Amino acid sequence: MTGQVMNNPSEEEKVSGVQETMKAAVVNQFHEDLRIEEVPVPQVGAGQVLVKIKACGVCHTDLHAAHGDWPVKPKLPLIPGHEGVGEVTATGTNVTHLQVGDRVGIPWLYSACGYCEYCLDGKETLCKDQQNAGYSVDGSYADYCLAEADYVVKIPDSLSYVDAAPIFCAGVTTYKALKVGGAKPGDWVAIYGIGGLGHVAVQYAKAMGYNVVAVDTFDEKLELAESLGADKVINPKKEDSGEFIQREVGGVQASICTAVTKPAFGEAYRAVKRGGTCVAVGLPPEMMEIPIFDTVLNAVSVAGSIVGTRKDLQEALQFAAEGKVQTHIETAKLSEINRVFADLEAGKINGRIVLVNE
Ligand code: NAD
Ligand code: ZN
Ligand code: ZN
């Protein structure tokens, strides 16, 4: 979308009074600062909606995108952002279930094919023909974002835009990872990394009836975890967390690793009890090494978990609407994005930063 010649506004857009250009934070080159640019407002096509973005959470994935960290690179130039929420201001032809004024969010799963074996089997996040918001297509670090009407998810009335935004990635991802972990109520689970994802993971875990060990290398993040209900906390800088968890609670049924460092994955694995599951969620661009002998003898499963389906997202939003999960948020302006990225990289952010449009 960025850099394209602007078309004439469609009838719908004239009706809803949408402006012709908008502000967006744009990645032009990996590892360079994002630039705030004036770009054309995208035009809705068939099956699409245009969303006036009110708020967008800043996920560590956006930092990976801006750095080109992963084997599959994002498009450039790129408008990042996959926790964008706002109001529908225009609907394309063939859109019947959404109307102008609806409150929706645009998650990482921007679209999927709808007919492959994964889409048909309720595993749409594995679709090989998916698009990803703020990665393969432009996302929500902007005044407006285009979306596929079938893949946006409505926000419950009782949830504010700012509170809803992080649920569209941090919330749904950790809720789904806990499901993948397969623990039963009353079981112990470990959450590795109490950042944007981890601090909501603690809350989903408590709401799902688990006992929770929180692990992070920053003491203030462990304090946040405790205030959110974590039963035990451990800083791996002080003691090997895998050993601590085996000693204190006999290991965990599910160990959810959201940290962005390789050593955390090793410790998360060692924290698992016999028959339990280590769920990889964080995405450092490194190898995860696991011992074959222990994996076999202890019947430990290692699973990857990638975001969540639209149905997972509806469920994750409902927890937040009922007040069982509340994101710890600081707001910032779009123009502050480079400072926010630097703080995120340095581990200085406690909770989630949400960009708010005036
Ligand atoms: P974040 O930076 O907010 O949180 C990461 C946390 O890990 C920080 O609190 C940091 O202090 C902590 N940490 C660092 N080293 C640690 C260690 N050795 N042990 C324990 N904790 C440690 O990032 P985020 O937005 O929560 O994202 C986390 C990761 O998850 C990123 O790699 C992101 O790309 C990935 N992600 C994956 C999915 C998915 O679907 N699998 C979805 C969203 C994000
Ligand atoms: Zn994300
Ligand atoms: Zn598909």
TrEMBL record:
Its EC number is 1.1.1.1. It catalyses: a primary alcohol + NAD(+) = an aldehyde + NADH + H(+); a secondary alcohol + NAD(+) = a ketone + NADH + H(+). It holds the Pfam family ADH_zinc_N. Gene3D superfamilies: Medium-chain alcohol dehydrogenases, catalytic domain, NAD(P)-binding Rossmann-like Domain. Its cofactor is Zn(2+). Keywords: Metal-binding, NAD, Oxidoreductase, Zinc. One of its GO terms (molecular function) is zinc ion binding. Residues 29-355 form the Enoyl reductase (ER) domain. The keyword Zinc applies. It comes from the Bacteria. Belongs to the zinc-containing alcohol dehydrogenase family. This is Alcohol dehydrogenase. It comes from Alkalicoccus daliensis.
